[in-house]
Amino acid sequence: MTRNRFAPARESLAWAEMALDEFRALCVANVEGLEWHLFTEFDEERCQTVQLARLNKSFDRNVARKGTDALERIKRSCDQIAHAAVELTHPTSEAKVFFPWGKSRASSERSLRRLKLDDAIALEFSNFEPYPPSPDYDGGDPLIPILSEIANRGHTIGIGFHASLCHAEIGPAETRGGRMRIPDLKWDSEKEQVELCRWSGDVDPPSDYVLEVAFTITDKLLRRPVEAEPALRTFKAKADRLLDNVEAGFAA
After folding, report:
1. What whole-number distance in Å separates Cα of residue 222 and Cα of residue 54?
2. Strands 48-55 and 193-200: what pairing?
3. Cβ atoms within 10 A of the Cβ of 56, count?
4. pLDDT tens string 61-101
5. Could you tell me which residues are beta bridge partners of residue 193?
6. Cα–Cα distance between 26 and 65 in angstroms, integer?
7. How far apart are CA 100 and CA 111, in angstroms?
8. Which residue segment(s) compose the domain that 117 sits in?
9. Which of 90, 111, 137, 225 could join 216 via S-S bond, C-beta 3.0 to 4.6 A?
10. Which of 11, 29, 36, 98 is nearest to 66 (CA)?
């Protein structure tokens, strides 16, 4: 009986696992044959020469489609776990059920209390820590609640899956009285390029670079892009544990 109630959540997580495996395969296929091409542009406004790097091919947007699919299914499974728990606790209830995400621990706890679950089951949701950390309280998850919010906004603004520069090693340069600056290496997902350095005057810029690219989730809610597959697998593993623990709690 309990297993049937939790079947939708388990199916969502199984499909999320399949989407993640397909996501990884697409990532591997997309990085095969990648080459970096260095080129320069002149910034007339600042009177500086800019050195940039661009990849030799664009990425298949099916990578983003599969990543989006995985994220949305994991997020959905959390709602389904909460719904099943309330349904088993209050079989006649027709109230709408939402997973107790919160902007703070206090707001999450208020949402959890509204579910009116038994203490042992409620504790499993509390241990999930569906709220961000703060200096004002202990606990909190710095990533998962943000991923949930990103998934929740996907139907309006979309979910940003892009290739990003994840590692860079820059060789030596000789300035000879000129001035050179190396900026934060931020990948421009529209132009599919990255600015490596800019200079003015007599400068012999670096010519030796080691650049590595990764598929990331980008969103203004994140301080910086996060590598997509590890983040999604962390989210899924946490949802898997919650499902197992809540289901076991009802079977006890």
Report:
1. 25
2. antiparallel
3. 9
4. 899 999 999 999 999 999 999 999 999 999 988 888 999 99
5. 54, 188
6. 10
7. 5
8. 2-251
9. 225
10. 29
